[in-house]
Structure of Beta-galactosidase:
Amino acid sequence: MAWLLNDCCFAILLLLTAFGVTAHAGNVTYDGRSLIIDGQHKILFSGSIHYPRSTPEMWPSLIAKAKEGGIDAIQTYVFWDLHEPQQGQYDFSGRNDLVRFIKEVQAQGLYVALRIGPFIESEWSYGGFPFWLRDIPHIVFRTDNEPFKREMERWTAKVVNMMKSEGLYASLGGPIILSQIENEYTLVEGAFHDEGKSYVRWAAKMAVGLQTGVPWVMCRQDDAPDPVINACNGMRCGETFRGPNSPNKPALWTEDWTSFYQAYGEKTYMRSAEDLAFHAALFIAKMKGSYVNYYMYHGGTNFGKSAAAYVITGYYDQSPLDEYGLMRQPKWGHLKELHAAVKLCSKPLLSGEQTTLYLGQQQQAYVYQNNNSGEECAAFLVNNGSREARVVFQGRRYVLPRKSISILPDCKTVAFNTAMVTEQHSTRSMVPSEVFNSAVNWEEYTEAIPDYENTSLRAKELLEQTSTTQDKSDYLWYTLRYQHDSSDSQATLKVDSHGHILHAFVNGIFVGSAHGAHNRRSFSLDTTVNLTKGLNKISLLSGMVGLPAGGARMERNFYGLRRVKIQDKDFTRQSWGYQVGLFGYRSQIYSDLGSSKVQWKNYGGSIEQRLTWYKTQFDAPEGNDPVALNLGSMGKGEAWINGESIGRYWVSFHTPQGNPSQQWYHVPRSFLKPTGNSLVLLEEEGGDPLGVSLDKVSITSVCGRVSETQLPQVSSWVEKNNTNSTMGTTAIVKLTCPPGKSISNIVFASYGNPIGNCERNALGRCHSVYSRAIAELVCLGKNKCSILPSNQVFGDPCPYTRKTLMVEAQCQ
Ligand SMILES: *[C@@H]1O[C@H](CO)[C@@H](O)[C@H](O)[C@H]1NC(C)=O
Ligand SMILES: *[C@@H]1O[C@H](CO)[C@@H](O)[C@H](O)[C@H]1NC(C)=O
Ligand SMILES: *[C@@H]1O[C@H](CO)[C@@H](O)[C@H](O)[C@H]1NC(C)=O
Ligand SMILES: *[C@@H]1O[C@H](CO)[C@@H](O)[C@H](O)[C@H]1NC(C)=O
Ligand SMILES: *[C@@H]1O[C@H](CO)[C@@H](O)[C@H](O)[C@H]1NC(C)=O
Ligand SMILES: *[C@@H]1O[C@H](CO)[C@@H](O)[C@H](O)[C@H]1NC(C)=O
Ligand SMILES: *[C@@H]1O[C@H](CO)[C@@H](O)[C@H](O)[C@H]1NC(C)=O
């Protein structure tokens, strides 16, 4: 392109290039307004994407979609347990390749916020601590304890030095602009009294001493010591945050929850695009917020055993990018518009003075104006009421929808309103691609039930489960010999457990199961069992569904069986025999190598068979759509593809509404070969493998709904201003199918007063008969299309009424 430039511009280009090569960003600093990068104050939108919750093959597209959504920075934790699985042995390969992830973000021109922790919570097993940490003599986690501080400092320094040697801090020309030490420590600080306070001071000093050249934050830590910034976590930081603890620190929001993590037995938490936009805008307008991070922007998948206690395998599927990396609409698009609208206000926001005007009982205007240039003015008109409000601001009238904020980048024109969603809604479908319903294609292997004679580890008490298994397995067998002399063939068996699930066997025969739940510390099994006269073999399999992700004194938690009674006799202090894990697990029969270690049998057809492994083969579905296993016919267990665990499943644990908490389990494309893939399921409870399918996941329908008088959102506002477009002052319906797909059918079209909001749509009393024909004419066969809701297009089906256009289309 250079030959097209005249001399003047060419010189500037040269100058810029030279500057770009030699300059680095310099240290990142801050003041009471914002972070200062390259000498510039910044309003930043950030999104959490955790590198091990997706695959390196997914990272470029996830980051690109975040960038397209108006995200400036990617925030991630560092997952200590993955990187140092054995003390002193490190792993930074594959999904654990932190440096590659950060360099990918850098390559796409975004910043990075690195939350080193090392405690991260994050609904991650043990809050990211490696399990061996608890075996360090005299250790007490997360307090003023020398052995703990030594390990924390060693690991933090290792991460910081790695980032430095790769040149990844902004101070060295890299993308990292912010680091975090500790995480939500306030939640446990009280348990440690003065030592908690001194630990906070120590952690801040230690981190700052590592000289990263970029600021450190602590989240949910009101007393974060200088120069560490206290940041807010939650859903409503515009209302709940008490603000920075010094006028010289900016207001940062490290976790704006786009949904909430989900535990088995619980239903999905839905947070609307409108609510997210309202609170992000409020934080910026009212709190002078300058950094908002969406937690999560892409949640992803808790592969293997990484999910914390009872937490489901899919993580924050309701994020702007769903578990599979698909855009969740309208959330993704509505936030994109919000970001663009706020960026139009950057100048007055960053250099102007904030004033608050009261426009009504529940209506305020937050105005940012620069005294020196009267031109630069931005306003946020907040309606916190539950009804639409009419207000007057600077001599102009505005209608503010209920619970909404209008953003006026010039203090005159509304560029965006948080409650007016003009983005399309999208519907995701799971379409079976491979149905595993042929019995001849399955093989099975059932675990033998071990008894006391089979065990080599013995103790005269009930051992704590995780210290016995070293968290190498979710399972521990507790076995007992019981001499039954009574003539009564039945007896009661009562087991109290601090584990998560229990399967009980007597003489190798299943007698009962029980399990706990998230936020429940213990549970019991109370059942009547058949005994034989003489010696009986009691075998109790205690299972964990992840370690907890937090709490004070995690290292002292007790898991596993606490008390066992048969009839009225207490066996808690009898001689118990132990076996760690299942045979199939120890032999890794889910892998190619381990598979031959057992004798697989033809599938027997029993759907009640416990502790059974199932194995089959399949070819990868065609195309590039993400894929997921539909395990709706199974009970509880774990699934492997080509030896890689895609996580635990627990379909039988229903929500109060009677549905599985999670039925589909993501199989990353990169786990698959074109042909001959192995699928192995470990089923604990009983299930029907013939009901399993491998489904393609895609956006199959899109729907747009816009009112005639609805304001254009920011992108059309900018277009109007810059390109002199004729779109006028109303918003338009825009439909876009995923790349490579086009609109194959108009499912619904109505210009008038249609009922529904892209859900359960129906015609209203007013309807233009041309609606469908026009939608078909404009949209069929296209990847994207736009339609103006106007009488000029559709005729006027009902004069003097405000009309709405709603169009739903299928993508194929
Ligand atoms: C950048 O920060 C580092 C570490 O805090 C410090 O040693 C250095 O002097 C700073 N450089 C500049 C240019 O301020
Ligand atoms: C801006 O103007 C207002 C009102 O005239 C005044 O109160 C305020 O101090 C000024 N701010 C600055 C930074 O000059
Ligand atoms: C909005 O009203 C609710 C109570 O209805 C209150 O809790 C909240 O703080 C208010 N928010 C704002 C921004 O005024
Ligand atoms: C346990 O030991 C018995 C003999 O006491 C043997 O028959 C059985 O196969 C063993 N089971 C396992 C799982 O090793
Ligand atoms: C116990 O034995 C009774 C009678 O033989 C039988 O009906 C029952 O199903 C048995 N219970 C279990 C749990 O095996
Ligand atoms: C809109 O256009 C005017 C005139 O060209 C320009 O001064 C102004 O900066 C533009 N505003 C935005 C938000 O682009
Ligand atoms: C905008 O449209 C008007 C009327 O069509 C035209 O006269 C004017 O030149 C256009 N402005 C630009 C910047 O294209």
